[in-house]
From TrEMBL:
It comes from Actinomadura logoneensis. This is Glycoside hydrolase family 15. GO terms for biological process: carbohydrate metabolic process. Keywords: Hydrolase. Gene3D superfamilies: 1.50.10.10.
């Protein structure tokens, strides 16, 4: 980590480069690749893509965001029969293998990724919840008609409402045997967003609302230890993805007791300027992730800790290379350096530029009112409403 903060010129350079990287990387189909320069990331994830679309929606690139939503809607509606088969199998009590569920990543043309040459960890639910969430944010922000995505929204709600409690891979494509709190938060936020869009019939809306209640109940019972949210239900570990349970997904109120304890646990274990994924992380040695530093800054901004939020924005900008490209992670403070070389030998240098990293920089910049000019000349951002109205039971208001 550099020992000096970025100046305004560096912030402006990274801001401009972030726009350039994302817009240049977006495929004609509307899909966002995770990283065009990194072979195993030349696909589109709904998780990465949802945050990338959110950044574009915020910074005046609404057409780019809408094109991604069109692509997602086409991907999901093309799998209507597959979703129907999964629902029927579940209703019949059949055992469903992970390989049968919807993929977590797709080729840029919307077809399933080829897994014959490389194994991938494909059953993940978080991205589908995130897509519903960001569609709602985009429609609200731009007062656009969401009916163009209605069929896909309905299919996604039916899919998540039936399978939300299945163990699956987490944000980091690990631990498929667990139910992950950040995954449940993404699903909860997505289903709440779908309800607000007004695209569901009465029965599906009722089911959607019931599942939201069930998610909060199970997190209350099994997803809290020592007062803070945990990496997965029944566990005790802390993970940086838990920040998203506070901001932006608001599974708990951002300034309530559980949120404060969760933030403190993250700060004390895996955050010190940059943010690690979790304490036992060995991927490329377990470095600090710019996108997670920006996520932490986003939460700081939401709770009014603007000085801390600005420090996170500066830290992220300081991780850019000479071109302004942001990587997936940086090696300045590795948790387990003995593992770094084996990943370089397997997949090459750390992915860069990572579109998700650039997107999170833009989101935090927008949250702080920074638009590529001197911070003092930027207006205060319009406050964003909370994305939940059902705090966990016992949560202070």
């Amino acid at each position: 980590m550099r020992d000096r903060p970025s100046d305004t010129g560096v912030l402006a350079k990274v801001y401009a480069r972030s726009l350039e990287v994302i817009l240049a990387g977006q495929a004609a189909s509307g899909a966002y690749p995770a990283c065009p320069a990194y072979p195993v990331y030349r696909y589109s994830w709904l998780r990465d893509g949802s945050f990338i679309a959110e950044s574009m929606s915020r910074v005046g690139q609404a057409d780019s965001a809408a094109a991604f939503h069109d692509w997602c809607a086409a991907v999901i509606t093309a799998r209507e029969d597959r979703i129907g088969s999964l629902l029927r199998a579940a209703d019949a009590g059949e055992t469903i293998p992970r390989s049968a569920f919807l993929p977590t990543r797709y080729r840029l043309d919307g077809t399933d990724a080829d897994t014959s040459d490389e194994q991938w960890w494909d059953f993940q639910l978080d991205g589908y919840g995130m897509w519903l969430w960001t569609v709602g944010e985009h429609a609200r922000r731009h007062q656009s008609d969401p009916r163009r995505w209605q069929k896909a929204v309905v299919l996604t709600v039916r899919y998540l409402a039936r399978f939300w409690d299945r163990p699956c891979y987490d944000w980091w494509e690990e631990h498929p045997e667990e139910r992950h709190t950040s995954t449940l938060a993404a699903i909860h936020a997505g289903l709440r967003s779908a309800l607000r869009l007004g695209l569901l019939d009465t029965e599906l809306a009722r089911t959607c609302s019931t599942v939201c209640d069930q998610i909060q109940q199970v997190v209350q019972r099994e997803g809290i230890a020592e007062g803070h949210l945990t990496k997965w239900l029944g566990g005790r570990a802390v993970d940086a993805s838990l920040i998203a349970c506070l901001t932006p997904f608001a599974l708990v109120p951002a300034e309530g007791d559980i949120a404060e304890s969760t933030l403190r646990a993250v700060e004390e274990t895996i955050a010190h300027g940059g943010v690690h994924r979790y304490a036992a992380d060995t991927f490329y040695g377990g470095g600090e992730w710019p996108l997670l530093a920006a996520l932490l800054g986003w939460h700081y901004a939401r709770i009014g800790s603007r000085e801390k939020a600005w420090r996170q924005l500066h830290w992220v900008a300081d991780q850019a290379d000479a071109r302004g490209d942001l990587p997936e992670q940086v090696p300045d403070h590795l948790l387990h350096p003995e593992y770094r070389l084996q990943w370089i030998q397997k997949w090459g240098p750390v992915a860069s530029p990572l579109l998700w990293s650039h997107a999170m920089f833009l989101i935090l910049a927008d949250e702080l009112g920074f638009t590529g000019e001197a911070p003092g000349s930027s207006p205060e951002p319009t406050p964003h409403p909370s994305t939940t109205d059902t705090p966990l039971r016992g949560e202070s208001q």
